[in-house]
């Protein structure tokens, strides 16, 4: 196994993280926190130095990486980059354990939205730089997640992603990323443009700059980190809530549509099966959810709130709509929805709508064969027929998600986490939907609700490490994580 490609990609990733320190530093200066600005600038310079040294050490050693090397490089990025992003958390609050800071950095970069650190600030201004840092990491993580899916996983055809693969136009520049620059630029323009539109919408609604930046960055990345622990959409007004929901839907949609690598028209969006499934899940799912709650629990969840909850859950951001919703929506329903997740090549986590659709279609095909054993049943997704090898990959992904959930649950219980909370936390981590833990009960049997972040903070360091690994496995696809382990095992035995 050759490792120069890992060094090249890791150096590029650390360079992005180093540059990202500028935004919270500027915010710190604007709110009168020069001490925090110095911390972010010094941390950024340290990260930039490491990135430069790493890039210098591997220059001129590039080659065309194999599939195993690409997946291994991908895993290394998601494991190592948060270690540098976590330094700022410790710098702002020296009492924070580094494991907690690493957990928060992994959570932000994987757009999971779980928090283990909760520094005590004397004012909103003092908390603003760290709020922006979390949001910036989420925003970077959302972009990196789409690039991961589009440029690596889809090109390898992992677990059905070959059905969603778009041709990558040849680049006009040299270097390790030369071939991918046009695709990366188109994706960046779409990602940044949608974020900017959301930010402008929130500012027009009268929201202050810092929470508007934090919410727009988090929503497009379908992350669950909010400006305040008590945040709920119902409390900010109809227009900003609508803007955030639209950003969540955009983030949970295949970014090939946004970036124009497919035909970018309203019809092209509706031609995409995953877009139709997403909109149907929000609309029909919201109506069914509100009706079931009204009939069986006597609760008062409105249809509009239920639709917003479905958008929040399917996007795997789990942005709270109302505090009462955590008690009204059953835990199993919330876990099932985030397990399904959003579209492929989106910022959403979960198994993905395409794979669920393929599993249902194959099941229907097998049922048809029972009544017509010699019949020919044509099945396709988005106009593309899918074969048995593709279905093997999808089934392998489904089984590996379940196995990973079981192993993560067992790991958490070894560190004293209650069984029900361990199940919820494992699905939350693997689906990159951290706030879904709010639907789980605490030791006294009370639903956690908006106190879910305190539940993460109270876990043992070992439990947080287990969850951090699960978050990374969920973001790079569990099947790819298993492939990394297999590749390393093969290398060791060679």
TrEMBL record:
Keywords: Cell membrane, Ion transport, Membrane, Transmembrane, Transmembrane helix, Transport. This is Trk system potassium uptake protein TrkH. InterPro entries: Cat_transpt (IPR003445). It comes from Pyruvatibacter mobilis. The lineage of its organism: Bacteria, Pseudomonadati, Pseudomonadota, Alphaproteobacteria, Hyphomicrobiales. GO terms for biological process: metal ion transport. GO terms for cellular component: plasma membrane. Its main location: membrane. It holds the Pfam family TrkH. The chain crosses the membrane at residues 38-59, 71-92, 140-163, 184-210, 230-256, 277-309, 329-351, 394-415, 465-488.
């Amino acid at each position: 196994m050759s490792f120069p490609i890992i060094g090249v990609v890791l150096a590029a990733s650390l360079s992005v993280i180093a540059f990202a320190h500028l935004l919270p530093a500027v915010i710190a200066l604007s709110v009168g926190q020069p001490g925090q600005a110095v911390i972010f600038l010094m941390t950024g310079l340290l990260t930039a130095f490491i990135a430069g040294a790493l890039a210098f050490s591997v220059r001129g050693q590039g080659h065309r990486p194999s599939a195993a090397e690409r997946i291994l490089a991908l895993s290394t990025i998601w494991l190592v980059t948060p270690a540098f992003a976590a330094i700022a958390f410790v710098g702002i609050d020296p009492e924070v354990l580094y494991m907690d800071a690493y957990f928060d950095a992994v959570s932000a970069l994987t757009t999971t939205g779980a928090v283990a650190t909760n520094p005590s600030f004397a004012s909103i201004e003092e908390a603003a730089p760290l709020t922006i840092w979390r949001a910036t990491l989420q925003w970077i993580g959302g972009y990196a997640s789409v690039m991961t899916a589009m440029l690596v996983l889809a090109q390898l055809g992992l677990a059905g992603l070959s059905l969603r693969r778009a041709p990558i136009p040849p680049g006009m520049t040299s270097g390790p990323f030369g071939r991918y620059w046009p695709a990366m630029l188109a994706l960046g323009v779409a990602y940044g443009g949608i974020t900017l539109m959301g930010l402008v919408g929130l500012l027009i609604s009268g929201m202050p700059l810092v929470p508007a930046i934090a919410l727009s960055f988090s929503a497009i990345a379908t992350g669950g980190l909010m400006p305040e622990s008590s945040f709920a959409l119902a409390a900010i007004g109809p227009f900003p809530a609508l803007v955030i929901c639209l950003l969540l839907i955009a983030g949970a949609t295949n970014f090939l549509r946004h970036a124009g690598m497919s035909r970018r028209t309203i019809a092209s969006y509706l031609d995409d099966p995953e877009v139709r499934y997403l909109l149907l899940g929000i609309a029909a799912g919201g109506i069914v959810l509100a009706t079931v709650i009204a009939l069986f629990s006597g609760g008062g969840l409105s249809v509009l709130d239920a639709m917003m909850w479905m958008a929040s859950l399917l996007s795997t951001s789990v942005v709270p709509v109302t505090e009462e919703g955590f008690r009204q929506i059953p835990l199993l329903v919330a876990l099932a929805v985030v397990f399904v997740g959003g579209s492929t090549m989106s910022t959403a986590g979960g198994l993905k709508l395409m794979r669920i659709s393929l599993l249902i279609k194959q099941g229907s095909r097998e049922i048809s064969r029972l009544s017509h054993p010699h019949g020919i049943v044509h099945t396709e997704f988005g106009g593309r027929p899918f074969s048995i090898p593709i279905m093997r990959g999808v089934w392998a992904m489904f089984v590996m998600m379940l196995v990973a959930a079981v192993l993560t649950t067992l790991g958490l219980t070894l560190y004293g986490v209650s069984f029900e909370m361990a199940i919820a936390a494992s699905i939350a981590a693997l689906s990159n939907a951290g706030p879904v833990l709010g639907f789980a009960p605490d030791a006294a049997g009370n639903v956690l609700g908006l106190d879910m972040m305190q539940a993460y903070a109270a876990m043992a360091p070992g439990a947080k490490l287990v969850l951090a690994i699960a978050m990374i496995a969920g973001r790079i696809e569990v099947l790819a994580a298993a492939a990394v382990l297999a590749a390393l095992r093969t290398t060791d035995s060679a």
